[in-house]
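Lab meeting, item 3. Inverse folding demo.
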């Protein structure tokens, strides 16, 4: 009997103690901006650059590729990530904004070193290259290119980001990933206005009739070989090619000649950087849930041009 009473008393004390602890913990986690998952993840979750890259590659068909430009261009695979920035071009301005944000890992779609293969032997005496490398090394900033893999994602990450921005994602067809068909044709002038507003492009170039109704639109964001674009004109006969950049003596002249023959394909040239920026903004939103506890921010590199 005495033993039973002692047990009840000690058990009651233990219950009250535990209840008090739990109540206090509940009050803490109920505070604005604080939750159990947040507390646990921020306390225990860390990622190295390599771990983040591996998480990304799991989402890409047939990755890793035997040959790709998507390589680490600065920093170390083993360094712990304090924050991630996605961008189109890892410019000096973007690097400085990354440092200011407390991040140390830039995931960039395009090259930091002025050529697609990121070859640097020919740049050893170049002032901008040397300044950039010193800035990256001093602040221990890792840069990894996310070009080939992002285009190989299903669906293409750059195209997806642009279509979401334009409100056209519902027209995407996996069977024809480069072509969308608008159910209600839009005059070319209306498409120009939409693209400039939604993709925040200050100026575009057009070859074609601004009054022409457009329904079939071929997507050629960034840079695409003109032979592919011209082949698409002959095979698919799109009303419009939505292009990032193209050599002026190639697709531009083919479209102009076609217009003078009475063909309907027009060309809308956006400029390379701004034509893919929305895709890298989408990359930040796509990646964030996969790496809890690490902040992913998009910093736009913007257009390099002034329009006078």
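The presenter then showed the designed sequence:
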């Amino acid at each position: 009997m005495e033993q039973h009473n002692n047990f009840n008393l000690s058990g009651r004390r233990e219950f009250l103690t535990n209840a008090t602890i739990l109540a206090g913990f509940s009050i803490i986690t109920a505070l604005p901006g604080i939750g159990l998952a947040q507390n646990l993840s921020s306390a225990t979750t860390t990622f190295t650059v390599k771990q983040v890259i591996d998480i990304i590659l799991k989402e890409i068909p047939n990755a890793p590729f035997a040959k790709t430009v998507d390589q680490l261009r600065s920093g170390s695979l083993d360094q712990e990530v304090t924050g991630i920035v996605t961008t189109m071009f890892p410019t000096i301005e973007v690097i400085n904004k990354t440092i200011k944000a407390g991040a140390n890992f830039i995931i960039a779609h395009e090259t930091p070193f002025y050529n697609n293969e990121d070859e640097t032997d020919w740049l050893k005496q170049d002032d901008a290259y040397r300044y950039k490398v010193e800035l990256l090394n001093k602040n221990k900033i890792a840069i990894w290119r996310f070009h080939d893999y992002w285009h190989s994602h299903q669906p293409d990450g750059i195209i997806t980001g642009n279509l979401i921005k334009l409100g056209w994602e519902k027209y995407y067809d996996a069977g024809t990933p480069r072509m969308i068909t608008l159910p209600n044709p839009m005059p070319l002038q209306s498409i120009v206005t939409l693209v400039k507003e939604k993709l925040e492009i200050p100026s575009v170039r057009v070859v074609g009739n601004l009054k022409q109704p457009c329904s079939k639109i071929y997507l050629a964001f960034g840079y695409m070989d003109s032979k592919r674009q011209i082949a698409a004109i002959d095979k698919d006969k799109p009303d419009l090619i939505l292009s990032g950049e193209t050599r002026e003596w190639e697709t531009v002249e083919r479209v102009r000649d076609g217009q003078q023959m009475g063909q309907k394909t027009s060309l809308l040239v956006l400029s390379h950087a701004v034509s893919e920026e929305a895709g890298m903004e989408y990359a930040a939103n796509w990646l964030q849930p996969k790496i809890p506890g690490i902040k992913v921010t998009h910093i736009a590199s913007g257009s390099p041009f002034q329009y006078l």
